[in-house]
Amino acid sequence: MGGLAAARLSVAASELELLAGGARSGADAAAAYAEVLSSLEDAARGLGAERGAWIGANGPVLPPEFEALLGRLEKSDLLGPNLRADILDLAQRRYDEAGVGARSLDSVIGRLLEQAPNGGARLAPAAEQLRRTLAVWMARRFMKTDDTGALAMPAVGAGWDRAALDSIPPLVEDYLLFDAKDLPQAPAMLRTSMRAAAQHQLRQGVERILARALAGSPAAGGVDRAGGLAQLRASAHALRTAFPVLAETMQSFRQIGLTTSADTIRDTVARQANAVLAQADRLLEGDQLYRPDAHALDVWVDGPLVPHLLFGQTTPAGLALYLGNARQEVTVLARDIAAPVVEILERSVMGAGTGSGAAAKWARIIAELDKYDGGRPNSSLAQLEKFVTVESAAVDAAGCQNLGAIDGVPDDFFRSRLAELKQWIATRCVLAADARVYDAYVDMAASFNEMLAGRFPFAAAAVAGEEADPAAVRAFYERFDARSAFVLEGLRRGERFGTAGREALRFVETMERARPLLIAAVTPDQSGGLALDPAFRVNRGREAGGSDIIEWKLATPNGSLSSMLPRTPLRWYPGDKLSVTLRWAKDGTVLPVSGVGAGASVDGPSLRFDYDGPWALFALASRQAAPQRDRRPGPDTEPLLLFEATASGPVKEAAAAAPMPIAPAVQAVLQPVVKPNVRVFMTLAVKRTVLADGKPPREEKVAVPALPAQAPPLAPVGSMRRMPGLAGWPAPSGAVAPADRAFFDLGTPPSQSPMLRPAAQRFP
Known about the structure:
There is one protein chain. The chain is α+β, with helices and mostly antiparallel strands. Among the domains are: about 1-140, no CATH class; about 160-395, no CATH class; about 530-650 and about 675-700, no CATH class. It has 21 helices and 15 strands. The chain has helices at about 1-20, 25-50, 65-75, 85-95, 125-140, 160-165, 170-180, 190-215, 230-255, 260-285, 295-300, 305-310, 315-345, 355-375, 380-390, 415-450, 470-495, 500-520, 615-625, 665-670, 740-745, and strands at about 105, 110, 115, 120-125, 530-540, 550-555, 560, 570, 580-585, 590-595, 600-605, 605-610, 640-650, 680-690, 695-700. Strands 5, 8, 10, 13, 14 and 15 form a six-stranded antiparallel sheet that branches. A five-stranded antiparallel sheet has the order 7-6-9-12-11. A hairpin with a 2-residue loop joins strand 6 and strand 7. The longest helix is centred in the middle third of the chain and has 39 residues, at about 415-450. The radius of gyration is 54 Å and the shape is elongated.
């Protein structure tokens, strides 16, 4: 038994050396101190049981009565004088075998053994004091981390277990008593490791309690619609109830230096709080409050908005009830659930940055509700309700000028809803405008295709069979003028129409440019008719045989313009014939043989091109239009006309007009075809007479564009259903999720259908 005591003291000495040197930390330090206490207690019991019969501080010691016995035996003839030496030698060997030398019983706190008054051994005072200190320490509550049987597992859905949390403050108080009373009695070189071991045990015990207290928290999972509000309210209440204990624990941990553990508790609380707010936010967003009815916006094409129809209600009273219900729902979520949680996140013990975006959002909602309840007009909720009930009624689909600024604030739920609502209305205004543009263009195109398309000059001259009626042109422009500016602006702005929109825009722009020409061409009074101002023999770089022509002449029944005579005004009126004459020298070496195109005839040295009918001027511009390769770069403000003919004799060609060489085999095939060898150009400026009250008439140049043969089709964009007005809207259909009223205690008159609509009937 004495050998066991010595071995245990040797273990204690080794552990104390490691602890003092910092080689043990955390759980290892706590276990090491438990081993030291166990060793010291085992040694004390062993030394007490053997009464120290032979163990001394520096070697074996024989008690006085045993010494007297040895003296009598030493005188015995049987045992002899060598008996004392043999017994002392045996005791020394036993002492050495037990490993209890002077060096092994020394430690960082001093010698662990001393000689008792009876000559035996006992624990030295330093060892005995350490044993008592460790015994008191190890008996403290915060050191008993495995004693968790008293903590019952909370029921699922119960949230924080306050009974479990209430066991944390006594542990912290117990640690503080240890730090104040027990630790100062320990040797100085051991205090740091003892404090670290004690804090580890305290931290471990608190963490175990928190883990059990958090079990079953509803905020850790989803909130179903059937019981979500009740669960969420219970979760928020449990967090609010638990927070005082958690805050006290965080403060105590920071005071004793356990900052990391305090931050861990803080992060746990923040996660739970933000989870509650996130669930509340999902409930709020799930009901799509203050968002318009999709069908109402979808059919709004013209006229002012009707507020109650915009939100799917049949009457203004229904809209008022809807707004009241929405406000009550937000208030319940904000006051009962979000407010206590936001208050927790704003406490100083939580520090900065623990709140999420949802926390900032709910804090702003609470502030705006306070403003609203206080009757302050700058409340964003008041501004939202004012827009919904009053200002939206002043918004007209024709322009949406009364929408005002569309600026949202990220953390302001009500202002963001107002911005979204305005943006949806503005987007629908654009779609409605596109719908009106589409309708106007379709009517315009239908009129053109019905009255003018395929009739000259709205058809190629070579294939024209029927000519357009001037009265039909006037009738078309009466309808065109009423909506052309609106259609042009809409097609230029409406990128949604795509390629078809660009084709339609080109058609409308062409008819707009051609309007002065066409109206003058079909107006029989003095304001009608067109002044003609030709420029003969232009584009000489592309001509052939132009130098052989000695005279050009443009003629109408009212007169003519010649390249040889002084120029006099020439006017063409609807129905007048037109002719262009080219004359060669009658005694020259080159004479015309034939002209290219309908209406060409040769009379000696002259070649005449005739154009008749009500659209003679347009026939001239259409038949003689020069190909693109011959036109000069830049805008075609004046049409470039090409006249081709075959002439006899040597014809001088410009280099640019020389034909490309043809292979002999191809030439043999084309031999019967006589190629024109005369190509000459002229331009024709056309002017109309503008009459203004009190002012003399003036001439204004007009464009002579190539006229379209047909109005291109335009496909509708998005949802463009036409409705005569909001009065024709059908009432919204579908029942309301009953959970809405069960959750928020929303009232509904018996005669009023439920106001809050299912999410499927609202905007996403």
